[in-house]
Amino acid sequence: MEQSTRHVIAALATLILLQGIMLSALYAGIRPHPPVATPLFGIAPFLGAAMSVAVAAIIVQPLGNRAGRILSVLAALMALVSFGPQKYFDAQFGLIYPAVLLGQFAALVIFASVVKVARPQQGTVAGQA
């Protein structure tokens, strides 16, 4: 397994753990936790879906094929709903900043790795390996 694949798997696992802990805090009522509901959807089902997409990306190889890359980017985007830059303006930022910063870093690792792999290799001619 290539090192870049290990980095993406580690980043996806980070997002899964962060979201799982936030979901657990929601169920346990431990603050800070995500709101029970948001205007557009229920947060618990969304976190479940986001974690499922991240697990699916790991299973199909996050950088190994188009499906894996799409799932990896989707998992990172879904995680940014919880950990994106909009959280800097959240009243509880002082309590959640470690998760926000780590979530953003993990998403950045995923985005950068997918872009690097998706770009054609320099010095090769299309159709040749």
Low-pLDDT segments: none
Sheet bearing the most strands, described? Answer: none
* Tally of distinct domains: 1
Radius of gyration: 16 Å
CATH topology (fold) name: de novo design (two linked rop proteins)
CATH class: Mainly Alpha
What's the total number of strands? 0
Distance between the termini: 19 Å
Concise summary:
Helices cover 67% and strands 0% of the residues. It contains four helices and no strands.
Task: Explain what you see.
There is one protein chain. This protein has 4 helices and no strands. It is mainly alpha-helical and 129 residues long. It has one domain (3-118): de novo design (two linked rop proteins). The two termini are 19 Å apart. The model has no long low-confidence stretch (mean pLDDT 89).
Brief descriptors of the model:
elongated; 129 residues; mainly alpha; de novo design (two linked rop proteins)
Topology overview:
Blueprint: H1 3-28, H2 43-59, H3 66-83, H4 93-118
Helix pairs in contact: 1-2, 1-3, 1-4, 2-3, 3-4
